[in-house]
Design goal:
The complex is a heterodimer of chains A (259) and B (305). With 259 residues, chain A is mainly alpha-helical. Chain A is built from ten helices and no strands. In chain A, 73% of the residues lie in helices and 0% in strands. The relative contact order of chain A is 0.14. With 305 residues, chain B is an alpha/beta fold. Chain B has eleven helices and 14 strands. In chain B, the strands form three sheets. A six-stranded mixed beta sheet of chain B has the order 6-7-8-3-9-10, sandwiched between helices. In chain B, β7, α6 and β8 form a beta-alpha-beta unit. Classes of the chains: A mainly alpha (259), B alpha/beta (305). Bound molecules: adenosine-5'-diphosphate (ADP) and magnesium ion.
Chain lengths: 259, 305
Protein backbone atom coordinates (compact mmCIF):
# COMPACT_ATOMS: atom_id res chain seq x y z
CA UNK A 1 0.00 0.00 0.00
CA UNK A 2 1.09 3.54 -0.68
CA UNK A 3 1.86 5.28 2.52
CA UNK A 4 0.09 8.42 3.54
CA UNK A 5 1.70 11.69 4.59
CA UNK A 6 -0.23 12.62 7.70
CA UNK A 7 0.13 16.12 9.05
CA UNK A 8 -2.53 17.95 10.99
CA UNK A 9 -4.80 20.13 8.83
CA UNK A 10 -3.57 23.74 8.85
CA UNK A 11 -6.93 25.14 9.97
CA UNK A 12 -8.14 22.33 12.14
CA UNK A 13 -11.86 23.02 12.00
CA UNK A 14 -11.85 23.43 8.24
CA UNK A 15 -12.25 19.73 7.24
CA UNK A 16 -15.37 19.59 9.43
CA UNK A 17 -16.80 22.65 7.68
CA UNK A 18 -15.79 21.12 4.36
CA UNK A 19 -17.62 17.89 5.13
CA UNK A 20 -20.87 19.74 5.74
CA UNK A 21 -20.33 21.90 2.67
CA UNK A 22 -19.90 18.79 0.51
CA UNK A 23 -23.20 17.36 1.76
CA UNK A 24 -24.94 20.69 1.22
CA UNK A 25 -23.54 21.06 -2.31
CA UNK A 26 -25.38 17.93 -3.37
CA UNK A 27 -28.71 19.57 -2.60
CA UNK A 28 -27.76 23.22 -2.86
CA UNK A 29 -30.45 24.56 -5.15
CA UNK A 30 -33.50 23.01 -3.46
CA UNK A 31 -31.97 23.95 -0.12
CA UNK A 32 -31.58 27.63 -1.04
CA UNK A 33 -34.99 27.84 -2.66
CA UNK A 34 -36.61 26.04 0.26
CA UNK A 35 -35.04 28.41 2.75
CA UNK A 36 -35.95 31.42 0.66
CA UNK A 37 -39.62 30.68 0.07
CA UNK A 38 -40.98 31.00 3.57
CA UNK A 39 -39.45 34.33 4.61
CA UNK A 40 -40.15 35.83 1.19
CA UNK A 41 -43.82 34.92 1.36
CA UNK A 42 -44.04 36.65 4.73
CA UNK A 43 -42.05 39.62 3.63
CA UNK A 44 -43.99 40.19 0.43
CA UNK A 45 -47.37 39.28 1.87
CA UNK A 46 -47.11 41.34 5.03
CA UNK A 47 -44.89 43.99 3.49
CA UNK A 48 -47.07 44.89 0.54
CA UNK A 49 -50.43 43.63 1.82
CA UNK A 50 -50.40 44.88 5.38
CA UNK A 51 -47.91 47.61 4.50
CA UNK A 52 -50.41 49.25 2.14
CA UNK A 53 -52.53 50.13 5.17
CA UNK A 54 -49.62 51.33 7.32
CA UNK A 55 -47.90 54.68 7.54
CA UNK A 56 -44.26 55.10 6.62
CA UNK A 57 -41.71 54.36 9.32
CA UNK A 58 -38.87 56.89 9.57
CA UNK A 59 -39.64 58.03 6.07
CA UNK A 60 -39.49 54.57 4.49
CA UNK A 61 -42.23 52.17 3.44
CA UNK A 62 -43.31 49.36 5.73
CA UNK A 63 -42.02 46.75 3.29
CA UNK A 64 -38.54 48.34 3.43
CA UNK A 65 -38.75 48.25 7.24
CA UNK A 66 -39.78 44.62 7.15
CA UNK A 67 -37.08 43.73 4.62
CA UNK A 68 -34.33 44.50 7.14
CA UNK A 69 -36.10 42.45 9.79
CA UNK A 70 -36.57 39.58 7.38
CA UNK A 71 -32.88 39.49 6.47
CA UNK A 72 -32.00 39.20 10.17
CA UNK A 73 -34.73 36.75 11.11
CA UNK A 74 -33.84 34.47 8.19
CA UNK A 75 -30.21 34.60 9.17
CA UNK A 76 -31.12 33.71 12.73
CA UNK A 77 -33.41 30.89 11.65
CA UNK A 78 -30.93 29.35 9.24
CA UNK A 79 -28.13 29.37 11.83
CA UNK A 80 -30.46 28.04 14.50
CA UNK A 81 -31.84 25.19 12.41
CA UNK A 82 -28.37 24.12 11.40
CA UNK A 83 -26.99 24.26 14.95
CA UNK A 84 -29.98 22.41 16.36
CA UNK A 85 -31.52 19.85 14.01
CA UNK A 86 -28.65 19.29 11.58
CA UNK A 87 -25.86 19.33 14.13
CA UNK A 88 -27.89 17.05 16.40
CA UNK A 89 -28.37 14.52 13.66
CA UNK A 90 -24.63 14.52 13.00
CA UNK A 91 -23.73 14.38 16.69
CA UNK A 92 -26.39 12.08 18.09
CA UNK A 93 -28.01 10.12 15.29
CA UNK A 94 -25.32 9.53 12.68
CA UNK A 95 -22.45 9.70 15.19
CA UNK A 96 -20.42 11.65 12.66
CA UNK A 97 -18.75 13.57 15.47
CA UNK A 98 -17.67 10.33 17.15
CA UNK A 99 -16.08 9.22 13.89
CA UNK A 100 -14.19 12.50 13.59
CA UNK A 101 -13.01 12.28 17.20
CA UNK A 102 -11.11 9.11 16.28
CA UNK A 103 -8.87 11.23 14.05
CA UNK A 104 -6.30 13.85 15.15
CA UNK A 105 -9.10 16.42 15.39
CA UNK A 106 -10.46 17.30 18.80
CA UNK A 107 -13.91 18.28 20.00
CA UNK A 108 -13.03 21.99 19.79
CA UNK A 109 -12.30 21.52 16.08
CA UNK A 110 -15.59 19.70 15.55
CA UNK A 111 -17.71 22.27 17.39
CA UNK A 112 -15.88 25.17 15.72
CA UNK A 113 -16.40 23.54 12.33
CA UNK A 114 -20.11 23.27 13.08
CA UNK A 115 -20.21 26.88 14.32
CA UNK A 116 -18.65 28.23 11.14
CA UNK A 117 -20.75 25.95 9.00
CA UNK A 118 -24.00 27.09 10.61
CA UNK A 119 -22.87 30.70 10.15
CA UNK A 120 -22.12 29.91 6.50
CA UNK A 121 -25.61 28.48 6.01
CA UNK A 122 -27.06 31.60 7.58
CA UNK A 123 -24.97 33.71 5.21
CA UNK A 124 -26.43 31.82 2.24
CA UNK A 125 -29.94 32.46 3.56
CA UNK A 126 -29.42 36.07 4.55
CA UNK A 127 -27.61 36.87 1.31
CA UNK A 128 -30.34 35.27 -0.79
CA UNK A 129 -32.94 37.47 0.92
CA UNK A 130 -30.66 40.44 0.45
CA UNK A 131 -30.50 39.81 -3.30
CA UNK A 132 -34.30 39.76 -3.51
CA UNK A 133 -34.53 42.87 -1.34
CA UNK A 134 -32.09 44.66 -3.63
CA UNK A 135 -33.96 43.48 -6.73
CA UNK A 136 -37.17 44.96 -5.30
CA UNK A 137 -35.36 48.27 -4.96
CA UNK A 138 -35.54 48.16 -1.16
CA UNK A 139 -31.80 48.59 -0.60
CA UNK A 140 -30.32 51.99 -1.24
CA UNK A 141 -26.71 52.34 -2.19
CA UNK A 142 -23.44 50.47 -1.77
CA UNK A 143 -23.58 50.63 2.04
CA UNK A 144 -26.02 47.73 1.74
CA UNK A 145 -23.07 45.47 0.96
CA UNK A 146 -22.02 45.87 4.60
CA UNK A 147 -25.13 43.90 5.44
CA UNK A 148 -23.15 40.77 4.49
CA UNK A 149 -20.66 40.97 7.39
CA UNK A 150 -23.54 41.90 9.69
CA UNK A 151 -25.28 38.69 8.58
CA UNK A 152 -22.14 36.70 9.37
CA UNK A 153 -21.93 38.16 12.88
CA UNK A 154 -25.61 37.52 13.53
CA UNK A 155 -25.23 33.99 12.18
CA UNK A 156 -22.22 33.27 14.39
CA UNK A 157 -24.07 34.45 17.49
CA UNK A 158 -27.12 32.28 16.81
CA UNK A 159 -25.05 29.31 15.71
CA UNK A 160 -23.17 29.39 19.00
CA UNK A 161 -26.37 29.81 21.03
CA UNK A 162 -27.95 26.92 19.15
CA UNK A 163 -24.97 24.69 19.84
CA UNK A 164 -25.52 25.19 23.58
CA UNK A 165 -29.04 23.86 23.27
CA UNK A 166 -27.82 21.08 21.01
CA UNK A 167 -25.37 19.93 23.68
CA UNK A 168 -28.22 19.66 26.19
CA UNK A 169 -30.80 18.02 23.93
CA UNK A 170 -32.02 14.52 24.72
CA UNK A 171 -33.99 14.36 21.43
CA UNK A 172 -35.29 16.46 18.56
CA UNK A 173 -38.43 17.33 20.54
CA UNK A 174 -36.32 19.41 22.87
CA UNK A 175 -35.68 21.96 20.11
CA UNK A 176 -39.32 23.04 20.02
CA UNK A 177 -38.82 24.63 23.45
CA UNK A 178 -35.94 26.66 22.13
CA UNK A 179 -38.21 28.15 19.49
CA UNK A 180 -41.20 28.67 21.75
CA UNK A 181 -39.27 30.05 24.70
CA UNK A 182 -36.52 31.98 22.96
CA UNK A 183 -36.62 32.43 19.19
CA UNK A 184 -40.29 33.31 18.66
CA UNK A 185 -40.66 35.82 21.52
CA UNK A 186 -37.34 37.36 20.55
CA UNK A 187 -38.47 37.79 16.98
CA UNK A 188 -41.50 39.74 18.22
CA UNK A 189 -39.61 42.12 20.50
CA UNK A 190 -36.49 42.73 18.44
CA UNK A 191 -37.96 45.13 15.88
CA UNK A 192 -38.34 42.64 13.07
CA UNK A 193 -42.05 43.22 12.33
CA UNK A 194 -42.66 46.56 14.03
CA UNK A 195 -40.62 49.27 15.74
CA UNK A 196 -39.87 48.47 19.36
CA UNK A 197 -41.23 51.85 20.51
CA UNK A 198 -44.64 50.21 20.17
CA UNK A 199 -43.74 47.99 23.14
CA UNK A 200 -43.98 48.78 26.85
CA UNK A 201 -40.71 50.47 27.82
CA UNK A 202 -39.29 47.62 29.87
CA UNK A 203 -40.01 45.08 27.14
CA UNK A 204 -38.36 47.29 24.53
CA UNK A 205 -35.31 47.51 26.79
CA UNK A 206 -35.14 43.74 27.17
CA UNK A 207 -35.58 43.33 23.43
CA UNK A 208 -32.82 45.81 22.74
CA UNK A 209 -30.35 43.62 24.58
CA UNK A 210 -31.13 40.49 22.59
CA UNK A 211 -28.80 39.40 19.82
CA UNK A 212 -31.46 39.60 17.11
CA UNK A 213 -31.97 43.29 17.93
CA UNK A 214 -28.21 43.84 17.62
CA UNK A 215 -28.34 42.42 14.10
CA UNK A 216 -31.41 44.49 13.20
CA UNK A 217 -29.73 47.63 14.54
CA UNK A 218 -26.91 47.06 12.05
CA UNK A 219 -28.87 45.86 9.03
CA UNK A 220 -31.78 48.33 8.95
CA UNK A 221 -29.73 51.52 8.65
CA UNK A 222 -27.34 49.86 6.19
CA UNK A 223 -30.24 48.95 3.90
CA UNK A 224 -31.46 52.53 4.16
CA UNK A 225 -28.05 53.78 3.10
CA UNK A 226 -27.02 55.05 6.53
CA UNK A 227 -24.13 54.19 8.83
CA UNK A 228 -25.62 52.50 11.91
CA UNK A 229 -25.48 54.42 15.17
CA UNK A 230 -23.37 52.68 17.83
CA UNK A 231 -22.20 50.18 15.23
CA UNK A 232 -19.20 49.18 17.30
CA UNK A 233 -21.35 48.33 20.31
CA UNK A 234 -23.61 46.09 18.24
CA UNK A 235 -20.66 44.40 16.58
CA UNK A 236 -18.98 43.76 19.92
CA UNK A 237 -22.23 42.50 21.42
CA UNK A 238 -22.66 39.95 18.63
CA UNK A 239 -19.02 38.87 18.80
CA UNK A 240 -19.19 38.52 22.57
CA UNK A 241 -22.38 36.49 22.34
CA UNK A 242 -20.76 34.19 19.78
CA UNK A 243 -17.57 33.82 21.81
CA UNK A 244 -19.14 33.21 25.19
CA UNK A 245 -21.82 30.91 23.80
CA UNK A 246 -19.20 28.91 21.92
CA UNK A 247 -17.16 28.35 25.07
CA UNK A 248 -20.26 27.22 26.97
CA UNK A 249 -21.38 24.98 24.10
CA UNK A 250 -17.95 23.37 23.92
CA UNK A 251 -17.90 22.69 27.68
CA UNK A 252 -21.35 21.16 27.61
CA UNK A 253 -20.60 19.06 24.54
CA UNK A 254 -17.38 17.83 26.13
CA UNK A 255 -19.35 16.77 29.19
CA UNK A 256 -21.80 14.98 26.95
CA UNK A 257 -19.46 13.16 24.56
CA UNK A 258 -16.13 12.77 26.32
CA UNK A 259 -17.15 11.87 29.85
CA UNK B 1 9.24 0.14 23.27
CA UNK B 2 5.64 -0.95 23.51
CA UNK B 3 3.27 0.46 20.88
CA UNK B 4 0.61 0.79 23.54
CA UNK B 5 0.85 0.46 27.28
CA UNK B 6 -1.52 1.09 30.12
CA UNK B 7 -0.74 1.07 33.81
CA UNK B 8 -3.23 1.10 36.66
CA UNK B 9 -6.01 2.40 34.42
CA UNK B 10 -9.21 3.34 36.24
CA UNK B 11 -12.54 4.78 35.16
CA UNK B 12 -15.66 5.22 37.24
CA UNK B 13 -19.17 5.84 35.89
CA UNK B 14 -21.95 6.63 38.32
CA UNK B 15 -20.09 5.19 41.29
CA UNK B 16 -19.19 1.93 39.53
CA UNK B 17 -15.61 1.24 38.62
CA UNK B 18 -15.97 0.18 35.00
CA UNK B 19 -12.22 -0.07 34.47
CA UNK B 20 -10.62 -1.07 37.74
CA UNK B 21 -6.83 -0.92 37.62
CA UNK B 22 -5.99 -2.39 34.22
CA UNK B 23 -2.37 -2.76 33.15
CA UNK B 24 -1.11 -4.21 29.88
CA UNK B 25 1.48 -3.60 27.18
CA UNK B 26 1.32 -4.34 23.46
CA UNK B 27 4.46 -4.82 21.41
CA UNK B 28 4.59 -3.27 17.97
CA UNK B 29 3.52 -5.59 15.17
CA UNK B 30 1.49 -7.91 17.39
CA UNK B 31 -2.20 -8.56 17.62
CA UNK B 32 -3.45 -7.97 21.12
CA UNK B 33 -6.87 -9.18 22.23
CA UNK B 34 -9.08 -7.59 24.84
CA UNK B 35 -11.65 -10.22 25.72
CA UNK B 36 -14.55 -9.99 28.05
CA UNK B 37 -18.32 -10.42 28.28
CA UNK B 38 -20.71 -7.55 27.50
CA UNK B 39 -20.19 -4.68 29.87
CA UNK B 40 -16.74 -5.87 30.96
CA UNK B 41 -15.22 -2.50 30.06
CA UNK B 42 -13.65 -3.23 26.66
CA UNK B 43 -14.96 -0.18 24.82
CA UNK B 44 -14.25 2.09 27.77
CA UNK B 45 -10.67 0.80 27.83
CA UNK B 46 -10.26 1.60 24.14
CA UNK B 47 -11.71 5.07 24.66
CA UNK B 48 -9.21 5.64 27.46
CA UNK B 49 -6.37 4.48 25.19
CA UNK B 50 -7.49 6.89 22.45
CA UNK B 51 -7.81 9.81 24.82
CA UNK B 52 -11.56 10.13 24.27
CA UNK B 53 -12.22 10.13 27.97
CA UNK B 54 -9.98 11.04 30.88
CA UNK B 55 -9.02 8.24 33.28
CA UNK B 56 -9.75 8.59 36.98
CA UNK B 57 -6.37 6.98 37.57
CA UNK B 58 -3.45 5.42 35.76
CA UNK B 59 -1.48 6.21 32.62
CA UNK B 60 -1.56 5.32 28.93
CA UNK B 61 1.22 5.65 26.37
CA UNK B 62 0.25 5.28 22.72
CA UNK B 63 2.91 5.39 19.98
CA UNK B 64 5.21 7.09 22.47
CA UNK B 65 2.69 9.82 23.33
CA UNK B 66 1.21 10.33 26.76
CA UNK B 67 -2.59 9.98 26.65
CA UNK B 68 -4.79 11.97 26.98
CA UNK B 69 -2.36 14.94 26.98
CA UNK B 70 -0.98 14.23 23.51
CA UNK B 71 -3.87 12.14 22.21
CA UNK B 72 -4.37 14.21 19.07
CA UNK B 73 -0.76 13.68 17.94
CA UNK B 74 -0.98 9.98 18.81
CA UNK B 75 -4.20 9.52 16.84
CA UNK B 76 -2.52 10.77 13.66
CA UNK B 77 -0.86 7.34 13.35
CA UNK B 78 -3.82 5.30 14.55
CA UNK B 79 -6.86 3.79 12.85
CA UNK B 80 -10.11 2.96 14.62
CA UNK B 81 -12.92 0.56 13.74
CA UNK B 82 -15.56 1.51 16.31
CA UNK B 83 -18.02 -0.97 17.77
CA UNK B 84 -20.92 0.63 15.89
CA UNK B 85 -20.42 1.78 12.31
CA UNK B 86 -20.58 5.53 11.92
CA UNK B 87 -20.01 5.88 8.21
CA UNK B 88 -21.29 9.07 6.65
CA UNK B 89 -24.68 8.21 5.14
CA UNK B 90 -24.68 11.31 2.95
CA UNK B 91 -21.66 10.14 0.99
CA UNK B 92 -20.62 7.36 -1.34
CA UNK B 93 -17.94 4.86 -0.33
CA UNK B 94 -15.20 6.83 -2.07
CA UNK B 95 -16.39 10.12 -0.59
CA UNK B 96 -16.36 8.60 2.88
CA UNK B 97 -12.67 7.82 2.45
CA UNK B 98 -11.84 11.18 0.88
CA UNK B 99 -13.56 13.18 3.61
CA UNK B 100 -12.03 11.06 6.36
CA UNK B 101 -8.57 11.59 4.90
CA UNK B 102 -9.04 15.34 5.25
CA UNK B 103 -9.43 15.00 9.01
CA UNK B 104 -5.87 13.68 9.01
CA UNK B 105 -4.67 16.59 6.91
CA UNK B 106 -4.14 14.38 3.87
CA UNK B 107 -4.20 16.07 0.50
CA UNK B 108 -7.20 15.13 -1.64
CA UNK B 109 -4.91 14.03 -4.49
CA UNK B 110 -3.08 11.59 -2.19
CA UNK B 111 -6.27 10.10 -0.84
CA UNK B 112 -7.84 9.85 -4.30
CA UNK B 113 -4.81 7.85 -5.37
CA UNK B 114 -5.22 5.48 -2.41
CA UNK B 115 -8.98 5.02 -2.66
CA UNK B 116 -8.95 2.20 -5.27
CA UNK B 117 -6.45 0.20 -3.17
CA UNK B 118 -8.38 0.77 0.01
CA UNK B 119 -11.66 -0.28 -1.59
CA UNK B 120 -10.02 -3.33 -3.15
CA UNK B 121 -8.60 -4.31 0.20
CA UNK B 122 -12.11 -4.12 1.63
CA UNK B 123 -13.54 -6.16 -1.27
CA UNK B 124 -15.49 -3.09 -2.37
CA UNK B 125 -13.62 -2.39 -5.59
CA UNK B 126 -16.85 -1.99 -7.56
CA UNK B 127 -18.62 0.07 -4.93
CA UNK B 128 -16.74 3.36 -5.13
CA UNK B 129 -19.86 5.30 -6.07
CA UNK B 130 -22.36 3.27 -4.04
CA UNK B 131 -24.24 5.05 -1.28
CA UNK B 132 -23.87 3.72 2.24
CA UNK B 133 -27.55 2.82 2.57
CA UNK B 134 -27.16 0.29 -0.26
CA UNK B 135 -24.38 -1.67 1.49
CA UNK B 136 -24.89 -4.85 3.49
CA UNK B 137 -23.76 -5.03 7.12
CA UNK B 138 -20.59 -6.85 6.11
CA UNK B 139 -19.79 -4.29 3.43
CA UNK B 140 -20.25 -1.43 5.88
CA UNK B 141 -17.92 -3.11 8.31
CA UNK B 142 -15.30 -3.57 5.61
CA UNK B 143 -15.66 0.04 4.51
CA UNK B 144 -15.18 1.08 8.12
CA UNK B 145 -11.99 -0.98 8.12
CA UNK B 146 -10.83 0.68 4.90
CA UNK B 147 -11.62 4.07 6.41
CA UNK B 148 -9.50 3.20 9.45
CA UNK B 149 -6.57 2.62 7.09
CA UNK B 150 -6.87 5.87 5.16
CA UNK B 151 -3.96 7.41 7.09
CA UNK B 152 -1.84 4.25 6.78
CA UNK B 153 -1.76 3.85 10.58
CA UNK B 154 0.88 1.98 12.59
CA UNK B 155 -1.72 0.75 14.99
CA UNK B 156 -5.38 -0.17 14.46
CA UNK B 157 -8.02 -0.43 17.18
CA UNK B 158 -10.87 -2.80 16.31
CA UNK B 159 -13.86 -2.87 18.65
CA UNK B 160 -15.78 -6.09 17.98
CA UNK B 161 -15.07 -5.96 14.25
CA UNK B 162 -17.12 -9.02 13.34
CA UNK B 163 -20.07 -8.89 15.73
CA UNK B 164 -23.31 -9.36 13.79
CA UNK B 165 -21.65 -10.56 10.58
CA UNK B 166 -22.31 -13.80 8.73
CA UNK B 167 -19.51 -16.42 8.55
CA UNK B 168 -18.37 -15.37 5.07
CA UNK B 169 -18.04 -11.76 6.11
CA UNK B 170 -16.21 -12.73 9.32
CA UNK B 171 -13.72 -14.87 7.46
CA UNK B 172 -12.99 -12.08 5.01
CA UNK B 173 -12.33 -9.65 7.86
CA UNK B 174 -10.06 -12.20 9.54
CA UNK B 175 -8.06 -12.58 6.31
CA UNK B 176 -7.65 -8.84 6.07
CA UNK B 177 -6.56 -8.52 9.68
CA UNK B 178 -3.93 -11.21 9.13
CA UNK B 179 -2.71 -9.27 6.10
CA UNK B 180 -2.44 -6.12 8.18
CA UNK B 181 -0.44 -8.00 10.77
CA UNK B 182 1.93 -9.32 8.11
CA UNK B 183 2.32 -5.74 6.94
CA UNK B 184 3.69 -4.96 10.40
CA UNK B 185 0.71 -3.16 11.88
CA UNK B 186 -0.15 -3.46 15.53
CA UNK B 187 -3.74 -4.59 16.13
CA UNK B 188 -5.77 -4.07 19.28
CA UNK B 189 -8.87 -6.20 19.02
CA UNK B 190 -11.82 -6.53 21.34
CA UNK B 191 -14.11 -9.46 20.84
CA UNK B 192 -16.27 -11.95 22.60
CA UNK B 193 -15.76 -14.55 19.90
CA UNK B 194 -13.17 -16.92 21.22
CA UNK B 195 -12.45 -18.52 17.87
CA UNK B 196 -11.67 -15.07 16.54
CA UNK B 197 -9.24 -14.38 19.36
CA UNK B 198 -7.68 -17.82 19.01
CA UNK B 199 -7.06 -17.28 15.30
CA UNK B 200 -5.79 -13.72 15.40
CA UNK B 201 -4.30 -12.79 18.75
CA UNK B 202 -0.69 -13.28 19.74
CA UNK B 203 -1.50 -12.32 23.29
CA UNK B 204 -4.67 -11.42 25.00
CA UNK B 205 -6.13 -10.47 28.31
CA UNK B 206 -9.51 -11.52 29.61
CA UNK B 207 -11.26 -8.83 31.58
CA UNK B 208 -14.43 -8.86 33.63
CA UNK B 209 -15.90 -6.02 35.67
CA UNK B 210 -12.97 -3.90 34.52
CA UNK B 211 -10.37 -6.25 36.03
CA UNK B 212 -7.85 -8.44 34.30
CA UNK B 213 -8.55 -12.06 35.14
CA UNK B 214 -6.12 -13.79 32.77
CA UNK B 215 -3.31 -12.95 30.40
CA UNK B 216 -1.22 -14.84 27.85
CA UNK B 217 -1.26 -16.35 24.38
CA UNK B 218 -4.33 -18.45 23.51
CA UNK B 219 -2.26 -21.64 23.95
CA UNK B 220 -0.82 -20.52 27.26
CA UNK B 221 -4.25 -19.67 28.57
CA UNK B 222 -5.66 -23.04 27.59
CA UNK B 223 -2.68 -24.82 29.14
CA UNK B 224 -2.80 -22.78 32.31
CA UNK B 225 -6.52 -22.78 33.01
CA UNK B 226 -8.06 -25.91 31.70
CA UNK B 227 -7.65 -29.65 31.02
CA UNK B 228 -6.63 -30.29 27.40
CA UNK B 229 -9.67 -32.36 26.34
CA UNK B 230 -13.41 -31.94 26.68
CA UNK B 231 -16.15 -34.48 26.39
CA UNK B 232 -19.59 -32.93 26.05
CA UNK B 233 -22.35 -35.32 26.99
CA UNK B 234 -25.97 -34.68 25.99
CA UNK B 235 -29.05 -36.23 27.47
CA UNK B 236 -30.92 -37.71 24.55
CA UNK B 237 -33.67 -40.29 24.17
CA UNK B 238 -34.21 -40.84 27.86
CA UNK B 239 -30.65 -41.40 29.06
CA UNK B 240 -30.00 -40.59 32.70
CA UNK B 241 -27.44 -37.80 32.58
CA UNK B 242 -27.46 -36.89 36.30
CA UNK B 243 -26.84 -40.50 37.24
CA UNK B 244 -24.04 -40.80 34.69
CA UNK B 245 -22.40 -37.64 35.99
CA UNK B 246 -22.67 -38.79 39.59
CA UNK B 247 -21.16 -42.19 38.76
CA UNK B 248 -18.28 -40.99 36.59
CA UNK B 249 -17.37 -37.59 37.97
CA UNK B 250 -13.96 -38.94 39.03
CA UNK B 251 -13.01 -39.79 35.43
CA UNK B 252 -12.59 -36.10 34.65
CA UNK B 253 -10.58 -33.32 36.24
CA UNK B 254 -13.65 -31.15 36.35
CA UNK B 255 -17.31 -31.56 35.38
CA UNK B 256 -19.74 -28.79 34.66
CA UNK B 257 -23.38 -29.18 33.82
CA UNK B 258 -25.42 -26.65 31.96
CA UNK B 259 -29.01 -27.55 31.15
CA UNK B 260 -29.07 -30.85 29.28
CA UNK B 261 -25.31 -30.93 28.73
CA UNK B 262 -22.43 -32.04 30.93
CA UNK B 263 -18.88 -30.93 30.17
CA UNK B 264 -16.14 -33.32 31.30
CA UNK B 265 -12.74 -31.62 31.25
CA UNK B 266 -10.10 -34.37 31.16
CA UNK B 267 -6.40 -35.01 30.78
CA UNK B 268 -7.03 -38.58 29.64
CA UNK B 269 -10.53 -39.11 28.21
CA UNK B 270 -10.28 -42.80 27.20
CA UNK B 271 -11.81 -44.35 30.35
CA UNK B 272 -14.72 -41.91 30.16
CA UNK B 273 -15.26 -42.59 26.45
CA UNK B 274 -15.32 -46.34 27.18
CA UNK B 275 -18.11 -45.80 29.77
CA UNK B 276 -20.02 -43.57 27.39
CA UNK B 277 -19.94 -46.26 24.71
CA UNK B 278 -21.90 -48.48 27.11
CA UNK B 279 -24.30 -45.79 28.36
CA UNK B 280 -27.74 -45.92 26.70
CA UNK B 281 -29.50 -42.74 25.61
CA UNK B 282 -26.52 -40.41 25.90
CA UNK B 283 -24.81 -38.74 22.98
CA UNK B 284 -21.39 -37.18 23.22
CA UNK B 285 -18.79 -35.09 21.43
CA UNK B 286 -15.10 -35.35 22.16
CA UNK B 287 -12.88 -32.38 21.27
CA UNK B 288 -9.78 -30.45 22.26
CA UNK B 289 -10.29 -27.65 24.76
CA UNK B 290 -10.41 -24.18 23.34
CA UNK B 291 -10.35 -20.62 24.46
CA UNK B 292 -14.10 -20.56 24.86
CA UNK B 293 -13.81 -23.18 27.60
CA UNK B 294 -11.27 -21.00 29.36
CA UNK B 295 -13.48 -17.96 28.95
CA UNK B 296 -16.53 -19.71 30.36
CA UNK B 297 -14.51 -21.06 33.25
CA UNK B 298 -13.18 -17.61 34.06
CA UNK B 299 -16.32 -15.54 33.53
CA UNK B 300 -19.05 -18.04 34.38
CA UNK B 301 -22.08 -19.20 32.44
CA UNK B 302 -24.64 -16.65 33.49
CA UNK B 303 -25.96 -14.32 30.80
CA UNK B 304 -24.63 -10.78 30.44
CA UNK B 305 -26.48 -8.15 28.56
N1 LIG C 1 -20.40 7.10 29.03
C1 LIG C 1 -20.84 6.23 29.95
N2 LIG C 1 -21.61 6.63 30.98
C2 LIG C 1 -22.04 5.77 31.91
N3 LIG C 1 -21.78 4.46 31.91
C3 LIG C 1 -21.02 3.98 30.92
C4 LIG C 1 -20.52 4.83 29.89
N4 LIG C 1 -19.80 4.07 29.03
C5 LIG C 1 -19.85 2.80 29.51
N5 LIG C 1 -20.59 2.75 30.64
C6 LIG C 1 -20.84 1.52 31.43
O1 LIG C 1 -19.59 0.91 31.65
C7 LIG C 1 -19.70 -0.50 31.57
C8 LIG C 1 -18.69 -1.01 30.57
O2 LIG C 1 -19.09 -0.61 29.30
P1 LIG C 1 -18.24 -0.93 28.01
O3 LIG C 1 -16.86 -0.43 28.19
O4 LIG C 1 -19.00 -0.39 26.86
O5 LIG C 1 -18.24 -2.52 28.00
P2 LIG C 1 -17.95 -3.53 26.82
O6 LIG C 1 -17.42 -2.76 25.66
O7 LIG C 1 -16.96 -4.50 27.38
O8 LIG C 1 -19.25 -4.20 26.50
C9 LIG C 1 -21.13 -0.80 31.21
O9 LIG C 1 -21.80 -1.15 32.38
C10 LIG C 1 -21.64 0.50 30.66
O10 LIG C 1 -23.00 0.65 30.90
MG1 LIG D 1 -18.15 -2.52 23.75
Amino acid sequence: MLSAAVRPPAVRWFPVWQRNFLVWKKLALPSILGNLADPLIYMLGLGYGLGAMLPEINGRSYVAFLAAGTVCASTMNAATFEALYSAFSRMHVQKTWDAILNTPLGLADVVAGELFWAATKSLFSGAAILVVVAALGLASGPLALWVLPAIVLTGLAFAALGLIWNALAPSYDFFMYYFTLFITPMTLISGVFFPTDQLPGWLATVGGWLPLAQGVALVRPLLAGQVPADALIHIMALLATAGVAFVIALRLTRRRLLK
Amino acid sequence: MAALSAAGLRKTYGGTEVVAGLSFAVEAGRCFGLLGPNGAGKTTTLRLCLGLTAPDGGTVTLNGHAIPAAAQQARARVGVVPQFDNLDPDFTCAENLLVFGRYFGLADADVRQRIPQLLDFAGLGSKADARIATLSGGMKRRLTLARALVNDPDLVFLDEPTTGLDPQARHLIWERLKQLKSAGKTLILTTHFMDEAERLCDTLIVIDHGRKIAEGSPRELIAAHIEPQVVEVYDEAGGDLPAFVAAHRDLAGRVETSGETAFFYCGEPRPLLARLAEAPGLRYVHRASNLEDVFIKLTGRELRD
